[in-house]
Amino acid sequence: MKDLLRLAAAILLAATLSPANLMADNQERTDTLATSVITGTRMSVLRDALPAPVSVVGRASIATSDETAVMPAVMEQVPGLFVTSRGVTGYGVSNGAAGAISLRGFGAGAGRVIILIDGHPQFESIYGHPVADEYMAANAQRVEVSRGAASVLYGSNAMGGAINIITRKPVKDGNSVDFKAMGGSYGTYRVSFADNYKKGRFTSSVTLGHDRTEGHRESSAYHSTNGMVKLGYQLSSAWKAGANVSLMKAYSENPGTVSAPMFDGWSDIIRGMAGLSLENKYEKTSGNIDLYYNFGDHTINDGYNQGGKPREFLFHGTDFTAGLSAYQMVPLFTGNTLTVGTDLIYYGGNAYRDPVKEIYADHKKLNEEAVYVFDQQTFGRFMFNAGIRFDYHSSYGAEWIPQVGISYMPGDNTTIKASASKGFRMPNMRELYMYASANSELLPEEAWSYDLTFGQHFLGGALNTELSLFYTKGSNIIEVVRENGKPQNRNVGAFTNKGVEFAADWRVNRALSLNANYSFLKMDVLYTGAPVHKAYAGIDWTPGRFSANLGVMMIRDLYLSTGEGAVTSNYIDLKARVGYKFNDWLQVFARGMNLLNQEYETMLGYPEPGITILGGISISL
What CA–CA distance (Å, rounded) separates 495 from 480? Predict the structure, then answer.
């Protein structure tokens, strides 16, 4: 195994040091380090100039992953990001669920990393966590990951970062159709369909998908069906209106751990969202107004272990989030852009098992209002930005959130940048009101993130590298303590995370591209689902009609449990994909996962599947 690692490293190093005359073409890809981003500022800014570190995963990487959910493809391409899994496909919810998202040691399962779709927050409002099965690869044009606190623009739950899924939309007149179907190991098959249409001022995008597997363990089946419709209309040269609606239904089984198998454990959920937008873009000012509504309906059977008995009552929960987001950008003078915005959120839900005796949340409702100011100024090769947010929540009151940053380009190909930002997470409804540990007087968690980033372009921009050093200190963390023999949620925790992140991509020529990333995380308080070492290297080769993709991810010191007798996981995941295009519209392909047949876990007691092979066809018209 060590020899294999050395070989992979040698291939990557040799490619990186190859002569510049190998570069025949510098055609830009949407996931290169030299692209533009919007997540850090709400306006399109070159990533080099943006003081905070942001990673971008483009449509090409998402499509060739052949995944139904978008998070597996994003995890491979972003340093410091990790997502737990327990099977071939699907994550599930409730006890034993996978899909826990960690960024620099911050867990989205606890609501410390926010997930956004086109800038709208996505979370199950009772428990405060995202639902990873809801975020579909077929819907995503690209994903931007802000590594570090992003609460000035996105509020609570962004104390560790923001993952913004930007959905697809047509950019030229005409109609295009993409269809993909595949099947293989463990009774797994996936089907996806996308139609993008534009004529004059009107645009539409429709995506449908179905994912199914029998699972590699007994009682580990999963199936989901999802769809999204997105419409747009250019009202005038400056104003554009939009609307979208999506729905996902998923069923997943929980087999339990190997040592304690679960019987009759399953969840059946529906998640949906709808939104309206009105965008303006003038010569000197631009902005947006969004209305959105998210909802969920969960039915869960928590099952029973050997010697137990079936549950008398099932868990039922419904939740909703309604919000308004508005901002306007105005240049005050040369090189300046001032953004003023507001966020209004109203959310709640109910949860119960026995509808008479065991009610956890009885139609609870909370609200949050916020205003923010974010200013960006360019002086020659310097860019400065600073922002502040005032957030008022119905349960804990007011919170002030500042952020500052600076970037400097001493040359056309070199960037040095630094940022400092405060993040926060408001207590979720479970922590405030549910179960024996509930405490309605909890205060928000807080964290300060400090970043220092160095970027360098080589070979006329064909080879791009980025190195980031980060330091994060959190306080007021909510933990369960014992008081008078009873559990109680309290703001008593603190932690310090620090580390290094590196990413590189090289467009060697029109047919060959390479990319790699590495992250090291040092945690003074250990958390599960956050590997100390994570490395990925990928090769994409498309000589004519043939295509091949090879990716290898190495994980070291992934904690499956903490405390005395802590358990860690170490593994290498080798994936490969080959395809052949018969013509402009038809391709056949096959892909393999865990090709080294590694035995490993990302969740304690839930072994991952062995070698997995899928094959299928892709049609583009």
Answer: 15
Dist CA 89 CA 182 (whole Å): 13
> Could you give the CA distance from residue 19 to residue 408 in angstroms, rounded to a whole number?
29
Q: Which helix (H) or strand (E) holds 59?
A: helix 59-64
- Residue 620: per-residue pLDDT: 92
> 219, 408, 184: which is closest to 301 by C-alpha?
219
- β-strand partners of 447: 423, 474
Which residue, chain included where needed, has tokens 């092979």? 613
| 264 vs 547: CA distance, rounded Å | 43
The amino acid sitting at 110 is A
How many domains does one find in the chain? Answer: 1
DSSP state of 62: H
Q: What is the CB neighbour count within 10 angstroms for residue 311?
A: 15
CA dist 349 and 338 (Å) reads 37
User: Considering only CA atoms, which of 30, 32, 36, 42 is closest in space to residue 150?
Assistant: 42
Q: Which H, E and C letters describe 132-165, residue by residue? A: HHHCEHHHEEEEEEEECCCHHHHCCCCCCEEEEE
Provide the 8-state DSSP code for 261.
Answer: B
Please state, in angstroms and rounded to a whole number, the distance separating the CA atoms of residues 361 and 570.
Answer: 40
- The residues of the chain scoring below 50 in pLDDT are 1-30
At 530, the amino acid letter reads: A
Domain that holds residue 11: 2-620
- For the chain, the maximum distance between any two Cα atoms, rounded to a whole number of angstroms, is 74
Give the pLDDT score at 321.
95
- Residue 367 is inside which H or E element, if any? strand 359-379
Residues 6+ apart with CB under 8 A from 455: 33, 48, 414, 415, 416, 417, 464, 465, 466, 467
What φ, ψ does residue 137 adopt, rounded to 5°?
Answer: -65, -35
What are the helix (H) ranges across 394-490?
429-433
pLDDT in the model for residue 94: 83
Tell me the sheet residues that pair with 251.
223, 268
CATH, residue 110: 2.40.170.20
- Residue 621: CB atoms within 10 A of its CB come to 11
- The model scores a pTM over 0.85: yes
DSSP state of 21: G
Which residue(s) pair with 418 in the sheet? 406, 452
CA dihedral 577, 580, 585, 586 (to 10 degrees): -90
Residue 339: partners with Cβ closer than 8 Å, 6 or more residues away: 41, 42, 43, 327, 328, 329, 372, 373, 374, 375, 376, 387
Cα distance between the two ends of the chain: 43
Cα-based distances in Å from 89 to 21, 168, 216, 224, 286: 42, 23, 10, 10, 41
